[in-house]
Amino acid sequence: MKNWLNPKAGWACMLLVTVLATAPVHAQNDAVLTVGTETVSISDFEHIFLKNNRDSVITQEALDEYMELFINFKLKVQAAEALGMDTVETFQKELAGYRTQLARPYLTNNELLDELVRQAWERKQEEVRARHILVSCSAQANPADTLRAWKRADAMRKRVENGEDFEAVAKSKAGSDDPSVRDNGGDLGWFSAFQMVYPFEEAAFNTPVGELSSIVRTRYGYHFLEVTGRREARGEIRAAHIMIRVKEGADDATLKASEERINQIHGLLADGGRWEELAMKMSQDASTASKGGELPWFGTGKMVEEFENAAFGLTEDGQISMPFRTAYGWHIVKRLEYRAPASFEASKRELQKKVSRDSRSELTRASFLENLKTEYNYSANAAALKFLKRAAAKQDSVFFPGHPLVDVPSRTAEATVLSIGDESATVADFVDYLKIVKIRNAEIGSDAIINEQFAAWSDKLLLDYEDARLEQKHDDFRLLMEEYHDGILLFELTDQMVWSKAVKDTTGLEAYHAAHVADFMWGTRADVDVFTCADAAAEKAVRKAVKKGKDLQAFQRDYNAENGNAITLSSGRFSEGDNTWGDKVLADAAAGNLGDKKPVIATYAGGGNETVLVHVKEIRQPEPKTLAEARGQVIAAYQDHLEQQWIKELRFGTTIEVNRDLLQTLAD
Predict the structure, then answer these.
(1) Looking at the structure, do residues 310 and 381 belong to the same domain, yes or no?
(2) Using CA atoms, how far apart are residues 268 and 121, in angstroms rounded to an integer?
(3) Which of 186, 203, 232 is the last residue of a domain?
């Protein structure tokens, strides 16, 4: 019998060992490659090849080339394993972290997830209007309080069902606990998917217009609702507004003045006044006036209803509404841009994220767990739990901090409390779990706590059991984990043997450069000073300064101080492609057009009226680069050299066999 949850043993952390130990062993005749004692099946090689050559035509040449790279890859990974790099704690933690992320899509009901995403999109095409009555009830409430809340909700529902006015019931004494009921009578306005908690959304979308829903439980308590409308989704709009504020309780004179003011603004707009200017000067919404009244994108449920109706009532971009009033004052709205509800494909990824974060994701988890229970013949021992509850009932403070459940008879402790596949756990295992888990709602009583925690513990063990078998059940996951495992090892060892070594091995780098100096050469270069002259006077001054051998940097600085920035100067040794004027000089030099007169000053037309004078100090013939000049190139070449030497050493003495006939089948 296995102790599944010994906190000191770190059972879950041992999954990392299982990752590699559970990979299936392929038959020898299925092996397309053998490197030492490791074989690679044709199906695994094909999977890896196609993943790294998605758009390539599969040819024998491509397969042979990739096979050589793959052999080198395998040799390096085996070298890292031989050094024990895969046993280092930092490596195991990094791989375990990746595995946790990669395993998530395999630990849920993906078919149901797809259905919920599709359902969410379909609901996003509609909007529902409903009003509700709420009876508050905490998710952690004890059974007596929960029943009392449900009965109260049921009583109010029956009153409405028997003909009483919904709003009157909602506002009545001991009516709805939603504090907004005083203002809206329970009316929630229009909404779509993700705007309400999922159980409430379910009730709203599944209840016909004009009818009452059943009582529904959410994290807020018990609700029932009446659906009062259903319409097509409006989409989203980007708009701007001009606003004249009206304070609540304003007198008639103020109301009349504000209405006259908004009508005046509308008249100015009708006469051709610029929207942005009027919004900036006359709108009393300080947060938007400086931006021409522009508001962020919004859809249903983001603005007060009157504002939404006015905005979505505009049918063209640039169209301006008539003045209208809301609880905040008077407005004029201008439509800037509209977008209809997105297609399924365009919104699928975003909806997947929302569903995974939404409470409906619990449905996919619960469904997945139920499937696991069937697959692995899950069974729980109710009798053993009953004995545990009796023991807990004798210890009143057992679930409070500092009072762990310890007084469990040995016979009860040794009893099997659940079985999953070929594993089982005892009451003692469950008690150990209770000792380390934080009990948040101890006041609900020991029986309820044990039921709640046993369910959570069972779910955890089911997921752990499935998690440990992902490599056996899913080839794509096994190969993905092997890819991460090998990739991390390859990076670490290649860094030691090649990348960092080439940078740090100064002696080796110098020797390599000396032995391959002809590989790092400068091409023909022009050593020049390039002057851009704004006018003829500047050109004349430059020619004079060059002929007299002046300090050209000082000359440019002094000349510009008196004449503005009439001259720009850049100097350097330029190879072909480095500098436009350097290229012109090199071309003229090759054609023999520079002449022998000293100093050599080439003249070219610049932009506009500018003239470019190039003082050609020297045309340098091809010559070796120093190590300092070619350091980046030398390091890269030295790294290639080190890697080739390393691969040669790894291949020496290692048995490498490729089944060419089997490999050929991938190209057929």
Answers:
(1) no
(2) 43
(3) 232
Please provide the distance, in angstroms rounded to a whole number, between the alpha carbons at the two ends of the chain: 52
Contact between residue 556 and residue 567 where contact means Cβ atoms under 8 Å apart: yes
Contact between residue 140 and residue 441 where contact means Cβ atoms under 8 Å apart: yes
Question: Which element (helix H / strand E) includes 240?
Answer: strand 236-245
Q: The CATH number of the domain where 583 resides is what?
A: 3.10.50
Output the domain CATH number for residue 311: 3.10.50.40
Q: Is the separation of the CB atoms in 15 and 468 below 8 Å?
A: yes
Alpha carbons within 13 A on the beta-carbon side of 576: 10
- Residue 189, domain extent: 126-232
Q: Within this chain, do residues 213 and 265 fall inside the same structural domain, yes or no?
A: no
Cα-based angle 101, 103, 107 (whole degrees, multiple of 5): 125
CA distance 43 to 41: 5
What is the predicted pLDDT for the residue at 53?
A: 84
The answer to whether position 75 is within a domain reads no
Q: What is the number of structural domains in the chain? A: 4
Cα-flanking dihedrals φ and ψ of residue 264, to 5°? -60, -45
- Quick: pLDDT tens for 557-576: 999 999 999 999 999 999 99
Residue 635 lies in a domain: no
Both 130 and 228 in a single domain?
Answer: yes
The residues, ordered by sequence, that sit 6+ positions from 497 with a Cβ below 8 Å of its Cβ are 642, 643, 646
Task: Say if residue 232 is exposed, middle or buried (CB neighbours under 10 Å; 0-12, 13-18, 19+).
Answer: exposed
Is the same domain home to 246 and 325? Answer: yes
Assign 423 to helix, strand or coil.
strand
Length of the chain, in residues: 668
Preceding amide of 143 cis, omega within 30: no
**Is 503 domain-assigned?**
no
Q: Are strands 600-605 and 567-575 parallel, antiparallel or unpaired?
A: unpaired
Predicted TM-score (pTM) of the model is 0.69
- Cβ distance 667 to 65 under 8 Å? no
At 335-368, the pLDDT tens digits run 999 999 999 999 999 999 999 888 888 999 999 9
**Residue 28 in this model has a pLDDT that exceeds 80:** no
Which residues touch 85 (CB under 8 Å, ≥6 apart)? 91, 489, 492, 493
The three state secondary structure string of 488-499 is HHHHHHHHHHHH
Q: Indicate the SS3 state at residue 308.
A: helix
Distance CA 458, CA 269 (A): 68
